[in-house]
Amino acid sequence: MFIAGTAFAYWTTSGAGTGTSATGTSTAVTVTQIGTPPSGLTPGGADQPLAFRVNNSQTTSQYVSAVRVDVASVTTGGGAPVPGCTSADFAITQPTAINSDLTAGDHDYNPSGALIHMINRNVSQDACKDVTVNLSFTAS
Predict the structure, then answer these.
(1) What phi, psi does 126 have (nearest 5°)?
(2) What is the DSSP annotation of 14-39?
């Protein structure tokens, strides 16, 4: 009688190793005003919309919760400060929250929900005639 069989031989082993990976970083986004800037602001006049663009220069998405708009200064056409007319003469309604991961590139917010108007104070506001209202945009 013939019995066929197979024999197996092997060695056992084990091992371990190490490696690394790295995270990316964030960079500040850039916010710029777009569209036609509001003009003709008058005491107690109508709200005028403010539009802006958020640029994410990263190749990956970055989270932006909101953009804040403030009156940075009030100047003459030549850039000089205007005595008697300040940021307190103007009011900003803040834009709608963004709360989003922004992909690389430009993201326009028009309409943004942001509005500006000149406050009608109980004093002469003649100093605010023919001035430039400089705005600042801050993303968070």
Answers:
(1) -60, -30
(2) ----------------EEEEESSPP-
Query: What is the spatial distance between Cα 43 and Cα 5, in angstroms, rounded to a whole number?
Result: 102
pLDDT tens by residue, the chain, 140 residues? 556 666 667 788 888 888 888 877 889 999 999 999 999 999 999 999 999 999 999 999 999 999 999 999 999 988 999 999 999 999 999 999 999 999 999 999 999 999 999 999 999 999 999 999 999 999 99
Rounded Cα distance, 67 and 48, in Å? 17
Collapsed DSSP state (helix, strand, coil) of residue 127: helix
Asked if residue 86 lies in contact with residue 18, where contact means CB atoms within 8 angstroms, the answer is no
Q: Are 131 and 85 in contact (CB under 8 A)?
A: yes
Q: Report DSSP letters for 69-98, one per residue.
A: EEEEEEE-TTS-B-TT--GGGEEEEPPPP-
Cβ distance 86 to 121 under 8 Å? Answer: no
